[in-house]
Amino acid sequence: MKRCYISDEHLNGFVEALMGRGPVIAPVAKQSRFVFEKLETVDDLMLDYDTTILPPKVAFFPTKQELVTFDGKEAKSCINPTDQVLFGVHPYDIKGIAMSDKFYTDSHVDENYMANRRATTIVGSSVQKHYKHAFFGSVCMEVEVIGHDMFLTRVAGGYVADVLTDKGEALLGLGQFGDATDAQAGEADQVNQAAMENCPEKLENTSAQIRDKMRSSFRSDVWEELSEDCFSCGSCNTVCPTCYCFDVQDEWGLDGVSATRCRTWDSCLTAEFSEVSVQGGCENFREQRAERFRHRFMRKAAYLNEQLGGPACVGCGRCSGACTADIANPVVVINKIMEQ
Amino acid sequence: MSCSCGSNAENVFLPKEAEIISAKKMTDTETHFSLRMKDGSTFDFEPGQIVEAGVFGFGEIPLGLSSSPTQTDSFELVVREVGKVSKALTELGEGDTMMIRGPMGKGFPLAELRGKDVLIVAGGIGLCPTRSLIRYIMARRDEFKKFTLFYGTRSPKELLFEEDLVEWRASDGVACLETVDQADESWKGNVGVITTLFEKAEGLDADTHVIICGPPVMYKFVIQKLVSIGIPHSNVFVDLERRMKCGIGKCGHCQINDKYVCLDGPVFRFSDIEELEEAI
Amino acid sequence: MAKVKCAWFDFASCEGCQIELTNYGEPFVELLQHIEIVEFREVMTEKTEAPIDVAFIEGSFTRESDRAKLERIRDRAAVVVAYGSCATCGGINALKNHTDDYKQEVYGADADKPHLDSTKALPISAAIKVDYEVKGCPMDKDEFLGIVQQLVHGTAKVYVPSYPVCVECKRRGTVCRFDEGDYCLGPIAQAGCGAPCPADGIPCEACRGMVQDANQKSMEKVLMENGKLPERWAKQKTRMFTANFREDA
Ligand code: SF4
Ligand code: SF4
Ligand code: SF4
Ligand code: SF4
Ligand code: SF4
Ligand code: FES
């Protein structure tokens, strides 16, 4: 891995050069929060954000995506990627992206996702401020931070830029990068280590312990109790970087002949997610809110571990903050289950 | 540095066009379609696999194939009218185009069934997906030992595939037992729930391999009977239904605990899922 | 194709939905090519008693004397569409449902005038069979056009989700009202609108009604604890558009 350095005064020039090549999706402020959005000017870039409302996968997997169009006679694919840079992604979110990549390529390759994903160059950045519910320092430690092309760590006077891929290498020519000194590289490692250690919230057990306990708690009454205030609003799913479920709906054109088939991010906490018409009637396989609440935690802490090599939670803390009822926090829920 | 320009071939959501060779109304709600791919290709599949069948503007629904892959010039589907998509499909007629994706999922365990006694228990519309296996067994009769079919419907009016039933009843080495919950004047056969057929059947033993497909309430009672014969849960296969939005293990809608019906099923070995609370 | 004969009727409402309709611009003009308006109080005065293909009804059912009028519309119309919150869930009119002295409060000295007499504000479906509902205050444009398109072109039923507004709000990446120190009824509000209100920086007031199985107890708690509403307010909040959904309705 090549370790470079770019000073504060040259960072904006680099970002502007990126913007000159194509869209740059980066964290920008939105009232009291932050969102990943296309940069209109480099001044909007907020590399000291805590976390964003929605995860960065919005850049290549929009909340609503057209899959196929139909003009009345013939169906056509809507795959149409644009080269872009996703800039300023925190390490836990890079893990989340690597997980989505896996979901969308395992067993069948979903080109509607992957084409956009491949057209995206990812520049990561170190966590400068912690979101109030972040616990990425104590979860999913067995999964590596991989899949990005360059990583920027905030150090004195500038950023250490780790170059990880050819796509990352290709960016070097766009900015005034020099080689990082040993001292700068050492400082960067310390900064990233400290970010892991200083998370405001913490899980107390290993992924394997949690997985086993989760599975054995499937029939526990605790789920009923934990989900009593749940609104089935799915906010905990929608904001999650490792949730990947979607719904597919057709939409008519105004002519009443043409149609577009679209997919939209979906949430297993909503009642309609698990409805099915069976033998002519309607059944819901997770009818109770406690069952749906439990399903999400099983998905996060047990069901997907084998496929991913670790739990499907990267500790961003978004769900904890998004839940208006204040019951979705994985740290609280998992620590409670572990105490049982 | 990139990459795909989005050729149609790579889009797993892009359906293929199938021409409807015939569309026959079987009952008030069921329509039987015979189809062939418009591009002239043979539709290859295994008995028990599913397709996503759709009409643009309405959507797609998962359907079990109901013909045998040994029949190569066409394939067959049965649509029961329940929602907006199935209604739109039902309104299609001969010469119209149906949009098809698939085949998908894992079908019946043919390799395991070969050389064994096979019992198929089908309730109501459950005969449609199992018909693909029944016809397969009929076409390759010598590869399987004794074959028994239990078929139950609510009333004689709802019997599906009557022509097939006539043929199956007359076949050698095949026991075709039928029942209805409620008889009418025309009905001469058994009356009662499907489990009453166990008293009429002969030669079912612990080594019989069983396929069950029907309404969820049926499974429990049938499996109790099988246990009393000594058939282990590992020799029982169930064909499950879920709402499927993608059919390729992505959308999450078909999950039963940690299994995906569209990838790991729709046919499951019962012993693999009996502990899963959300399965049946 | 013969034009579809449509008629518009209004009951207890502000007629805002009719105004909303004429605000649609282009799609409304496009729509006019496929329909024949036989009755529309906002734009014409001519009235008929002839059969109609589609009756669009606005406003809530709040006077027993309106039942006969509604039944006559039902008899004449092949399809009845109730549109707007008033017609689909009683709407803001249902704000009076829990009290008897609303007339005094609203009209003061004029409270005794006989035309002000009314009973509980209920959806049109409380009086007659309704085939389609378009929710919202004012009604949702896309849903309305989708239904009309379906009636005109025979296309599929528009999908209206059954989950809460938070789903759509989060998908837009809107900053939650609760994060801004505000309150919001999104967690129990019926989605389908695309959550425009929080996106504009104001709370969702659940103008489309509540979702099925809305967790009302939890909502009260959240309004008090996170929304910082005083208890009395938190308990009354859902009377604005969703009085008929309340557990005490
Ligand atoms: S479950 Fe919560 S904390 Fe974990 S990755 Fe998802 S949103 Fe972040
Ligand atoms: S938690 Fe729910 S919505 Fe998220 S990926 Fe899993 S099943 Fe899908
Ligand atoms: S846990 Fe919280 S965010 Fe998730 S569905 Fe329930 S109320 Fe909504
Ligand atoms: S602003 Fe309202 S609708 Fe949006 S997420 Fe928050 S509570 Fe839900
Ligand atoms: S956000 Fe709430 S108040 Fe606003 S339109 Fe939607 S349901 Fe009505
Ligand atoms: S149907 Fe989408 S995951 Fe199975």
Report on the structure:
- The complex is a heterotrimer of chains A (340), B (280) and C (249).
- By secondary structure, chain A is α+β, with helices and mostly antiparallel strands.
- Chain A folds into two domains: 2-197, no CATH class; 207-339, no CATH class.
- Helix content of chain A is 32%, strand content 23%.
- Chain A contains twelve helices and 14 strands.
- Chain A has helices at 8-21, 91-103, 111-118, 166-169, 182-197, 207-216, 222-226, 235-238, 289-303, 305-308, 318-322, 330-339, and strands at 2-7, 24-30, 33-38, 64-70, 75-77, 84-89, 120-125, 150-155, 158-163, 178-179, 246-252, 259-265, 275-278, 281-284.
- In chain A, a hairpin with a 2-residue loop joins strand 8 (150-155) and strand 9 (158-163).
- Chain A is globular.
- The model of chain A has no long low-confidence stretch (mean pLDDT 92).
- Chain B is α/β, with parallel strands linked by helices.
- In chain B, 20% of the residues lie in helices and 29% in strands.
- Chain B has seven helices and 15 strands.
- In chain B, 50% of the residues are buried.
- By secondary structure, chain C is an alpha/beta fold.
- Chain C has eleven helices and five strands, in the order E-H-H-E-E-H-E-H-H-E-H-H-H-H-H-H.
- Chain C has helices spanning 16-22, 26-32, 66-76, 85-89, 102-107, 141-153, 165-171, 196-199, 216-225, 231-236, 239-242, and strands spanning 4-10, 35-39, 52-58, 77-83, 132-134.
- In chain C, helix 3 links the parallel strand 3 and strand 4 (77-83).
- The radius of gyration of chain C is 19 Å and the shape is globular.
- The interface between B and C is small, with 6 and 3 residues.
- Bound molecules: iron/sulfur cluster (5 copies) and FE2/S2 (inorganic) cluster.
What would you say the CATH architecture of the largest domain in chain C is? 3-Layer(aba) Sandwich
Question: Largest beta sheet of chain A, briefly?
Answer: 8 strands, mixed
**N- to C-terminal distance of chain C:** 46 Å
The percentage helix of chain A is 25-40%
List keywords for this structure.
heterotrimer; B: 280 residues; alpha/beta; Elongation Factor Tu (Ef-tu), domain 3; Rossmann fold; 2 domains; six-stranded antiparallel sheet; 7 helices; 15 strands; C: 249 residues; five-stranded parallel sheet; 11 helices; 5 strands; binds iron/sulfur cluster; binds FE2/S2 (inorganic) cluster
